[in-house]
Amino acid sequence: MSAKHCANLQAAARAAIGAAAVGGEMQWVALQAEIARCDALAAFAVAHFGDRFYWERPAAGRAIVGLGRAGVIESEGARRFAEASERAASVFERLHVAGHATAADAGPFFVGGFAFASCAPREPHWKDFSAGRMILPEITLSVTAERSWLTIVQAVEPVEPARLDTRVREICDALHVRLDQVSGQLTHLGVFETSSVEDAAPRRYRASADRAHAEYRAQVEAALREIAEGSFEKVVLARSISVSEAGSYDSCALLDALRQAHPSCAIFAVARPEAVFLGATPECLVRLVGSRFETASVAGSAPRGRSPEEDLELGRRLRESKKEQTEHSFVVRALRDALAPHCTSLQVQESPRLMRLQDIQHLETPIVGQLREPRSIFDLVGSIHPTPAIAGAPREAALEWLRANENLDRGWYSGPIGFADPDGGGEFFAALRSAVLRGNEAQLFAGAGVVSGSDPESELRETRLKLRAMLAPLLEI
Hints:
There is one protein chain. The chain is α+β, with helices and mostly antiparallel strands. It has 2 domains: 3-187, no CATH class; 205-250 and 283-476, Anthranilate synthase, CATH 3.60.120.10. It has 11 helices and 23 strands. It has helices at 3-23, 40-46, 80-93, 164-187, 213-228, 251-261, 308-320, 322-339, 377-384, 395-405, 456-476, and strands at residues 27-35, 52-57, 62-67, 71-74, 95-99, 110-114, 132-136, 139-143, 148-156, 205-209, 234-245, 266-272, 275-281, 284-289, 292-303, 343-348, 353-356, 360-371, 392-393, 416-420, 426-430, 434-438, 441-451. Strands 1, 2, 3, 5, 8, 9, 10, 11, 12, 13, 19, 22 and 23 form a 13-stranded mixed beta sheet that branches. Strands 4, 6, 7, 14, 15, 16, 17, 18, 20 and 21 form a 10-stranded antiparallel beta sheet that branches. Helix 1 crosses helix 4 and helix 5 (213-228) packs across helix 11. The model has no long low-confidence stretch (mean pLDDT 91).
């Protein structure tokens, strides 16, 4: 590191110690450096931390890995997104950054996510997953299509004035050593590769659904009766399956399979000491850069065809289906109504396009807007979550019905997953096509939107199709 950057780091450390002494609040120092490009999943796989975060959009060449915990924000209740926004802004104000990086893509970031509901999950497989948990990592790897950065963060507390110069040197030395150590390890990483064992015994799995198919169909019928009576217009009914094996699951091998099978999706993992929540989700909840944001309505589904001709026909039927158009329109309307009051402009594509994934295709309507006043990514997530694509419409009526009838602790399934940057921007997706792994148990989740004209058997079949996104690679790893 150049003399200039060393001086910047010393100044940052001195400022942090001084601010801690004056305000009595924790401060942080971050050291950044541009490094050679490496595979984010390989970095995630070799790390041994209680808290780990992985985020990759393969088609965009974008990835973030967060390791360890320099700071944490946990929130629950009706104000959990507002609390996360306020506390993240407070931490970033007390974070003193030095080093090579100047691009916003370099970080540092808060990474993590939130449960579907505002209260903490109850089921054992969701142990250690709260209603909302965002981490300021000790180590952050940020990768774009062109460049890669490494950020090391260290907490700083006040010291006696006589020890100021000594403590500045200690902090600078510790950050330099850690940066050199981690960057050296990353430099020697190749692309993540799954290990293979020849002549291994066949793997045996045991699967069980959380309810009988007849019960799920009956729940759809009950929802349709409520819709006919005018209680709500749409509700998204989810179910889960549990898959166990004799050994333990390899979460990194599963992530690798997901990123290869679903390059257009966001591949994510939130790892706690004894469990990993991961998935491949196609649904961008919101992306915010400066005052410009992007979101999309993703609702209405059909399978992919077994031939190009069948695929085109299924796509045509999806686009022309009145039932699917109605389901899709609820999401477009809800997003427009939630975001328009905060915008100087809001552009909604006139008609939906097809989003084609490996086994399924959806109707998608992109939405782009310009904010009237500064708002954080957490504020926007709080405004639109849960959308009709994952809960129903009107929101409160659908949620009330789900609480009384779904009989499923969704945990972080269909909750917001992503990251926030120091400028208030960031990116969150709805955590769909996902599973929580704990030892030799995997809990998979999927849901289907029920509207007037829905058929119980078709909705059950749609959940099977969505579960396949996780089930197929899970059984093959």
